[in-house]
Design goal:
By secondary structure, the chain is an alpha/beta fold. It folds into 2 domains: 196 residues, P-loop containing nucleotide triphosphate hydrolases (Rossmann fold, 3-Layer(aba) Sandwich), CATH 3.40.50.300; 103 residues, Helicase, Ruva Protein, domain 3 (Orthogonal Bundle), CATH 1.10.8. Helix content is 47%, strand content 17%. The protein is built from 15 helices and 11 strands.
Length: 329
């Protein structure tokens, strides 16, 4: 395929992504930056941790994304009594009415979908949370010794409520590291509130129409990986990761006191993949430093393990990521 034909294909798919944004915006008003970051995560092939207070439209956003992409959607309400079998599925004993013979059959759980909304994931026990690990990393689940592949694209979007922490189980670092990025959903502005209240209290409610096929989503994921990142950009990301490691000589002095563990190599992979997706959606066939700086915070904010001093002082992880960015500028 020639460069010209590739550029034409990218331009056509960018137009499709523009219509995708417009469809989502019909039911999820405001927060254009959140929608863009979510689309970049989908095209980068990663999972998303979505944090926001109740009532901000997290479920509406994820459902609209799945509908606009014509992907299957399942929602699991995580609770303390949720079991791994409720997520993965279980074997049940069935009897053939004709012969009377009994045999075990596997009933697939809600994880067998394209878009899985893990609602309030931190309310489930660590045992149930760990049921998602293999699926998120390898796009498969193993039940009773049998490995079952998940149909691509497979995307987990987990939500957290930062307000009510009683009765929750913090996500372990190993699971946090498997989320490509963490999106923080802030309260809407006054103008957005007016639009939301007007749209949701009237006689008509908007619906989302599919505007992109599954094959196009998979093709976009392939194109994202083909976007080049120069050796200077890759080295810049590597230096950024080293600057978040408190035992590294490249780390700023304050960050050494405020961070116990820095970002893993998965953090660098997340930055580069998100940067490639951002470049592609903007019509560029290369990654620049601005992409890295824009995406470092959502890619790293959930990967830094803060010290007790940082938590007690209320220092947000974004401040620490910014210090690392300034150190490698």
């Amino acid at each position: 395929m020639t460069l010209e034909s590739t550029q034409n294909e990218i331009d056509a798919l960018r137009g499709t992504c523009k219509r995708l944004r417009e469809e989502i915006a019909r039911v999820f008003l405001g927060h254009e930056d959140v929608v863009d970051l979510l689309l970049q995560s989908v095209l980068a092939g990663g999972h998303v941790l979505l944090e926001g207070a109740p009532g901000l439209g997290k479920t509406t956003l994820v459902r609209a994304l799945a509908s606009a992409m014509d992907l299957s959607f399942q929602r699991i309400q995580f609770t303390p009594d949720l079991m791994p079998a409720d997520v993965l599925g279980s074997r049940i004993l069935e009897e053939d009415p004709a012969t009377g013979q009994r045999a075990f059959s596997f009933q697939r759980g809600p994880i067998f979908t394209h878009v899985l909304l893990a609602d309030e994931i931190n309310r489930a026990t660590p045992r149930t949370q760990s049921a998602l690990l293999e699926a998120m990393q390898e796009s498969q689940v193993t039940v009773h010794g049998e490995s079952l592949a998940l149909e691509p694209p497979f995307l987990v979007i987990a939500t957290e409520n930062p307000v009510e922490m009683e009765g929750t189980y913090p996500l372990p670092e190993a699971q946090l590291d498997r989320f490509l990025c963490k999106i923080e959903l802030d309260p809407p502005s006054e103008a957005d509130l007016v639009s939301i209240l007007t749209a949701t209290t009237g006689p008509d409610t908007a619906t989302v129409v599919p505007c992109i096929a599954r094959a196009e989503v998979l093709r976009l994921r392939e194109l994202v990986r083909e976007v080049p990142a120069s050796s200077e950009i890759v080295r810049h990301v590597a230096r950024l990761l080293r600057a978040t490691e408190p035992r590294s000589a490249e780390a700023p002095e304050r960050l050494r006191r405020m961070v116990r563990y820095g970002a893993s190599p998965r953090g660098g992979q997340a930055i580069l993949l998100l940067a490639k997706a951002r470049a592609l959606l903007q019509g560029r066939l290369h990654v620049n430093e601005e992409d890295v700086r824009e995406l470092a915070r959502p890619a790293l904010r959930h990967r830094l393990v803060r010290s007790y001093e940082a938590e007690a002082s209320g220092i947000h992880p974004d401040e620490l990521v910014q210090e690392a960015l300034d150190a490698v500028r």
